[in-house]
Amino acid sequence: MTDTSSPAPADQEISAEEIADVFEQKAVRLAKRERLIAERTDAAGGAYPVSVPVTDTIPALRERFGTLEAGEETGVTAGVAGRVVFSRNTGKLCFATLQSGDGSRIQAMVSLAVVGDESLQGWKELVDLGDHVFVSGEVISSRRGELSIMVSEWTIASKAVLPLPNMYSELNEESRVRSRFLDLIVRDRARETVLARAKVNASLRATFTAHGFVEVETPMLQVQHGGASARPFVTHSNAFDADLFLRIAPELYLKRAVVGGIDRVYEINRNFRNEGADSTHSPEFAMLEAYQSYSDYNGIADLTQEMIQNAAVAVTGSTTVTWADGTEYDLGGQWDRLSMYDSLSAAAGRSITPQTPLDELVAFAAEVGVDAPPHPTHGKYVEELWEHFVKSGLTRPTFVMDFPVDTSPLVREHRSIPGVVEKWDLYVRGFELATGYSELIDPVIQRERFVEQAALGASGDVEAMRIDDEFLRALEHGMPPTGGMGMGIDRLLMAITGLGIRETILFPLVK
Fold first, then answer.
1. Which residues are within 8 A (CB) of 150 and not within 5 positions of it... i.e. 6 or more apart?
2. What gap in Å lies between CA 447 and CA 160, rounded to an integer?
3. Inter-helix orientation angle 378-389/340-348, to 10°
4. Which CATH superfamily includes the segment(s) 188-335+396-504?
5. Are both 18-158 and 188-335+396-504 of the same fold?
6. N or C: which end of the chain has fewer CB within 10 A?
7. Which residues touch 357 (CB under 8 Å, ≥6 apart)?
8. Which residues are annotated as a binding site?
9. Which of 465, 439, 461, 462 is nearest to 451 (CA)?
10. Is the pLDDT confidence value at 368 over 80?
């Protein structure tokens, strides 16, 4: 019995009849597994061989023989393995489509005239959709022009005890996220996204290498969290009998490396923030941070633009990308740079400066329907108002420059504009993709900023930073002027592909 279609996976909403059918199919497949064990004659035992004599991959055969004419024979024998994703059995000839990990496919033709009655009957009785099968035989093109293996011998390399979902109907988003292994089997876009992510990471590393950067790894378990304003995850070390934090950012350690003389340094690794989850936020996410000595926020913005444009070309071949919904988005050219305060004043129709009193911002926010931010400060109100008036109007990639000083405790003050810091946020596709600083390197001012943050923390702000004496001690040994940036890898994939964050993360956290 070979099932040529199968119900949805158990995590989708399916009927009691469909659930019963899955259990029935599982029982049938387990019985076939027992038969495979009984028929094994080698010393290893078990249902499946330890290895199979593969000589070629499916994509390699498609590359070599993809232009065969219908009915053409090659005289070349190949041994390939793949997952059965389609099966059709007739009296004297069986057809199966084998799929490799990258989605490439080849047809296997099992003929009575070639393999004999016993082998053909075994194929019909034992092979199901989802099984990994090894076949060996001549490479040919079928009468319909499909690249095929005319099978002379075959074996089941691994049996799928549970049926696959229907290959011709979409899994819903929840099923794709919860059962990514099935998503990768049945959906080309899922595999393409994995490959796109790998290309992005390779491109980022290539760009950094071209600019003389060194890749390092810094601790994920930290004695105290820092480097960003976020709520951390807390765990406990039995060995040290101490509470530790999963890092929210690698910043303070990477800056230690700069102090130590690694003038151009970066890291691509995981961050953890104990906050909300939505279409652009995940509690666990991949982060890139980089620091370049003797640069500033303008230089690091140039580098960030180059990295993103190179990554787009690596994935799509162009800086004009096509999103999942068919929209084209241009990442090319020179990106706009606009002032946060100037753009807010223009959009709001009134002057808002770093010197605007907090009570005026509070009254104006209430007037236009902007909710008060938690633990309100001048800077937090300015940023909330900017998002209300300006953010939605950004269409091209845009660096939003020069932020309020009280929301940016690790950034140096602007060289010519009092009350702001040299920081930018990069907005692409309507969300913040990256942020960059002229780094604060003065340990005296940095300590003052940490003290201010500690006061906010004491008043209940769970995202406020703590005083990090070890980091301050490093700064006291002298850190050169430096430009730094941070970017979410998952969000970069979102900008290039148009997908949501749960689609760009291979195995996202779900309840």
1. 109, 111, 114, 137, 138, 140
2. 60
3. 60
4. Bira Bifunctional Protein; Domain 2 (3.30.930.10)
5. no
6. C
7. 378
8. 425, 432
9. 465
10. yes
Convert the pLDDT of each residue in 342-356 to its tens digit: 999 999 999 999 999
Number of H helices, E strands in the chain: 16, 18
How many residues can be counted in the chain?
A: 511
Write phi, then psi, for 482 (nearest 5 degrees). -145, 140
pLDDT digits (tens, 9 = 90+) for 286-341: 999 999 999 999 999 999 999 999 999 999 999 999 999 999 999 999 999 999 99
**Which residues are CB-contacts of 16 (< 8 A; sequence separation ≥ 6)?**
none
440-470: per-residue pLDDT in tens? 999 999 999 999 888 888 888 877 788 899 9
Which strands, in side-by-side order, build the sheet including 284-293? 214-215, 264-272, 284-293, 482-488, 431-438, 420-428, 398-404, 336-339
Indicate the average pLDDT of the chain. 92
User: How many whole angstroms separate alpha carbon 227 and alpha carbon 248?
Assistant: 7
Reading the block at residue 234, the tokens are 């807390």
The structure's pTM equals: 0.88
Q: Where are the domains of the chain?
A: 18-158, 188-335+396-504
Q: Which residue has the tokens 């876009």?
A: 189
- What is the CATH number that goes with domain 18-158? 2.40.50.140
Confidence class for position 51, pLDDT limits 50, 70, 90? very high
Binding residues for Mg(2+) are 425, 432
